Each structure stands twice: as structure tokens, then as C-alpha cells.
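Lab meeting prep.
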Amino acid sequence: MRLLLPLPGDEAFAARLAAADGGEIAGLEFRRFPDGERYVRIAADPRERPVDIICSNADQHFLTLAFAADALRDLGASEVNLVAPYLGYMRQDARFRPGEAVSSRTFARLVSTVVDRLVTVDPHLHRFGSLEELYGIPATALRAAPLIGDWIAREVTAPLVIGPDAESEQWAAEIAARAGAPYAVLAKRRHGDRDVTIAAPDLRAHAGRQPVLIDDIGSSRRTLVAGIAELRQQGLPAPVCVVVHALFSGDAFARVADAAARVVSTDTLPHPSNAITVAPLVAAALGDSLA
């Protein structure tokens, strides 16, 4: 039986994963010494068992991840994997200004020295064709599109799926096909981290349908709020918004929720909007590793 070790904040996802794959959840004793250094203890016997460390905030918990992985190997685990439903450090995939750190490459190199395998969901692969261009370990990128399409088909009457930009067209088309709906895409121009302009095509042919605005990451809210405004200007009803990764910094979620009919996310990150679980996808991928 697999052993699942959730790092702080990922206990709920680990419980859903255990329910999906029958794994056993291991306890983690974690505290800080007076000088701030980390103490880590595995409260389970991992001998001759595969262990999956669950961690969607490797920025905050990387040292805990590294200490736990090394301890598990010392204690006889047969393999130590990282399940990161949300994988950070994927946006800085190039040096856009002189002197910038290309953090995606550095982070991948560090993680590759700590665990044997990586499983994640919809990483931000913009300039890389696959995770294995970055990571020196087997890396599986799962796709939430079928789950999102199925949710839309169940929950939304007469949907119109709308992607956030031209690059999302293939993704939007796949979700729309799964939901049995038409689709359209917006035109997005990003001028900076927090400066986005959006233009919508003529959607009058879809009058009477419920727009469903999709995005991979809900973070600063500007893409979603600007998209909602464009749709409303064409006389469409407030859209349902569906995102894969619910980052939503600051007041972003409140601003989107005020403008949308409903905001829904997958559970790659814990958030009140979570309505679509990716745990069965992850469980199936981990099971395949034993085949």
C-alpha cells in the first residue's frame, strides 16, 4: 500500500487522494527550533513502500520537502515521489530583462535532486514542450480539461465555453467538446504582471447561452474581470468562471465573485471555490507507475 505524506496545508487533498487510491496517510511532525530551523519527523514506517509527498506550496515548504524525502529514503522507502497538484516556479521560463533569474530551471534542478518522480496538474508550460525538458526525473503533467468539461455539462445549462486568449483555443475547444457546447476565445494583451487588456469577438450568434469563462490560473483577477466586462458589454449574462489553479491573491477572488455568476476551481490548491477534484486523476497516474 502506498504511503501518502501531506505537507502542511495539503492534508485535505491527501485525504481525497487516499479515498481514491486506497493509500495510507502518514503523519508528519513538524516544528521550528528557537532559531527558526525546521524539525521534521515521519510518523509512519515507510520501509519497502512507495511514498508520495503531497505539496502544492513548494516555495514555502521546499526545505521541509527535502528533509522529509531524505528521511524517507534513510528509513527504507522504495521510492519517494512529489505530488504537486499546483507546480510553482513555471512562469519565469526566460530572462525577460537583463539580470533576471530563470527560476523555473533552478527550481526544477533542485526538485530533481530531492525526489524520484513528479506528478502535477496543468503546469504553466509556455516555452517548454514538456516538463522533462526542465526536470531530470520522470515528470507527469495531468490535464484537468476532461473534468472541467464534465462539470460544465452537469452544472451549466446551454453553456458557451470562452477561453481567455488565442493560445487557449485548443484547450477551450477540448473542454467545449466534452461539455457538448460551442466555444469562443478572447484576445488578451498583457502589458505587465497586473496590466491586461481584453477584447471579445462578436458573440451575438450565441445569445441565450450561458457563458463559461475558463482560465488556467486565477491570480490577480485582471484577466477574468476584464473578460467579464467585455462579455457583459455584448449583452451576455454574467459568466460562470472556472479556473484550474485558484491562487487569487489579495482581493482578487472577491472582485471576480462580485462580477461573475459563480466562480469554480479544481482542488489543486485549497480554496473556497473548489468544486472539481483532481484526486482521481492523480491516483490513476500513481497507480500506473506500479504497472
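Slide two material, second protein:
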Amino acid sequence: MQYELTAPKDITGHIDLPSSKSISNRALVISALAGGGMIPRNLSDCDDTDVMIKALRDMPEVIDIKAAGTAMRFMTAFLSVHSGTHVITGTERMRHRPISVLVNALRRLGATVEYVDEEGYPPLRVTGGTIDGGMLEIQGNVSSQYISALLMIGPAMRNGLTLNLIGDVISRPYIDLTLCMMNDFGADAVWKDNKTIEVRPRPYTPLCYDIENDWSAASYWYEAVALGGKGCKVTLTGLTDSSRQGDSSVRYLFSLLGVKTVFESAGSDVPRTVTIENSGRMVPRLEYDFINAPDLAQTFVTCCAALGVPFHFKGLQTLKIKETDRIEALKAEMHKLGFVIEDIDGRELKWTGERCEQMPIPVIDTYEDHRMALAFAPLSIKIAGLRINNPGVVTKSYPHYWDDLRSVGFDIRQL
């Protein structure tokens, strides 16, 4: 399937954002470890959360988490402390995403995890039960999902868990989010210092937990407002100024590209809203280290280039092991649009303003990666006739994205 996008002259509207899949997936695991009696409220309806709901509800012998990397990591850890033997697998791409860091860590803590096929990659056979836990050293520059997966099962270990993080720690806000949610459910989990986390063997307590809407999804509306020009304004629901989501930093970053954020007060029975508006003022150049918010990189690479703002972005090393190699995907697709993006050691992306010939009818490939479709679609504001291949990938995190674009005036034609 392919969509052709035509943007409206003015971007104005009200958007009900999807729920945060990061919070939803953590809440599901912690709720299951707390006994599973209470289902979190306002759960995400995306693919990644759906596979976790079904896995935790049905607990089949073979659990297929499809393309959900979060579910693969969180469920592998969960299964290691849940009685029974299960095989966990996924898509072809998932079976080529490395997981040895997590498997080795679980084994050192006493878990029984085996590779079914290729060493270092899913599928995995996990035989669960009570494990000892204790002290563990792990590199801090691995995916924060590995660290969060280990932390969440810490209260279920006989001796709890002490994690010593070695070297640089990336995506720290996601680790902090995990710890905050664990403590919300009655765990005792704290930073002892800036590299050591201690989780005591105190069981979780069941809790009615409300899921905030998704700041990552909000980033694409910030992008649209930035590209739409002065006066463009969109209202977004369900976001808080004190959010624990790492991608809430998007509001500060987009202020540099001229997008102002105003939080609206609301009654207890009225969804909280945020109004974002283009002020028409932006920086001439942008440098930023995305070490704590790598999922925002595609949004800012596409947006800055389309605005003519040269950039140098660092802290992108985890992009190569996401749903696709996002470094290579960004370079290839931006080249179709006439932008020459430089890759520095697979860790940085830089654009000096260099241009090349744009394809007459640009067709963006999405590489089975939801964020490629989500981040490139707003570029139709600047590039007439932009086309997106395999637009259905957005269901991984934002199922009603295309409907939301239509609601503010985008014409989306299936070819």
C-alpha cells in the first residue's frame, strides 16, 4: 500500500493523542507481577501493547510478540520469574535483533534462558521460577529496555537486585520512569548513587493505574506546527507538564524551532490539554545530544532539514538496532528529498546545508519502522505529492495517525 499526502494551507485542530506505550507496557508487566488483579486504565491500543496484553492474559506455550522490541525484552525477563516454560519469538527482523546482553544478565541472576536457533538472538526458551538475584554489573550504554526489564523483576527475586551500571548511561529518563512506576506499585527501588540502583525484595501491591498520553506521538504534531509556519496551532490532550516520559523534552527542543507550548488547566473530569503554536522565530542552527531521547531523532532530522536549519545530532548509537537501522534509513530517504546527511561513526548525524537533486515524485520507504512513517508524513507540508510506502506500520505505536492528519485537513489518497 502507498499513500500520497497533500497538506492543508493551515495546520489547526484538536488531537486526542494515543496513550503512552512505554508506560502501558511497564504497567502491564508490573501489574502482572502484582498479581494481575487490576488492569491499568487508558492502555495504549497500539500493536506493541496489544501483543503484551495477549501474552500476559493467555500465556501460550509459544509467545509471538511480532515486531515489538519492548515486549521481547520485558516479557523475556517476566517469563524468567513466572513458573512454566515458554518460547518467545517474533518477526524476521526481531529474530535478528541482538538480545544476548539481557540473556547473559538473566543467567547470571539464576534464570534459565536458552537460544532456540541462533546464539545471541530470539527465539528464546525460558523456564521460569523464583531466582536468587543479587548484584549484577551491566554496561550502561546498552538499550535502557534491558535495564528496565531487569529492574521490574527485581522485587520478585529472593535477594532483590543491585545493578551496577558501567560506563556511560544512555536513555536515563526511561530508567527513571521505570523506577517511579515500580515505587508507585509499592516496590523499594532507588538510585544509591549515579551508577548503582538497588531493588529490595519487596512484593508489588495491586494498583489502579492511569496511563498518560504519549509525548512521542506529540512530537509529530510539534513537527507539523513547526513546518506549517507562523500562526499554526494544535491542541493536544492528555499530557502533563510534570511528565516522567523522556520524550517530554520535545517541548523544550521545539521551542528552539519556534513552537511555543502552553499547558491548559482543566477540571478533574476534563482531559488535560496542551496548545502548541508557531511563533515564527527559530535558531539558525541546532546541535543536540539525543542520548536520553533517541526516538526523537527522526523527527528532528526531518524537521530541521525541511526548515533549512543545519544540525549536528549526537548520541544516536542505539538507532542502528531499532526496528530498522535508522541511521542508514534516514540517510537514504532524506537523499530522495534532496538532503545530503552525513553519518559519523554510526553515532552522529550532521547536515551542513548540502543539497542534491530531489526525486520528482518522492516515495518514502518505511522499513517496517513506524517512526519513519510518522516523522516523514509532516514533510508533505513542504514537499507536494510526498508518498509513503507501507503506511500501516504506524499501528505499532499510533494506530489512528492517518485519521488524525485527515482531521486537520490533510488529503491522504491511497494509490
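Talking points for slide two:
The first strand starts at residue 2 and ends at 6.
DSSP finds twelve helices and 20 strands in the chain.
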